[in-house]
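Q: Sequence in, structure out?
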Amino acid sequence: YSNALNNTDLSGPTLFAPMLHKAMEIAQYNKAHGSVEYTILLLITDGEIHDMESTINCLIKSADLPLSVIIIGVGKEDFTKMKILDGDSGLVNAQGVKADRDLVQFVPFRDFQNDSEKLAQHVLEEVPAQLTQYMERIGIKPKSVPQFSLSMIRSQV
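A: Exactly. Output:
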């Protein structure tokens, strides 16, 4: 990874919408075919985005799909736009349409670059709730897990 980072040039324009469209296609296909697969798109960015409104509109449309988006910001850029996309307080487009659910998690790498465990924790922090909220919206409930007693476990050991 270190070698790749040292030999990779980041350049623009940065367009999230085309990647989101592809992830949406995958999630829509799975949903249409009765699959319960849940898609997670990981975007690594330096903070620049040149299609903010298109990206917001994609995210709003994605609220009814089995999809989460994780954005990791690298570098020293201002990540204000990524925080807007995170939408913890609600994601709204220019027409005033609001996303029905939060499906984005943004994490600035620099805040956790020396602690991979905390980085992983924050990157994945919202996914369980996003998955659960989506499944509840479409009426899928978890299968009940058989209850085991301590004596049953001991007898198997």
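The first helix runs from residue 2 to 6.
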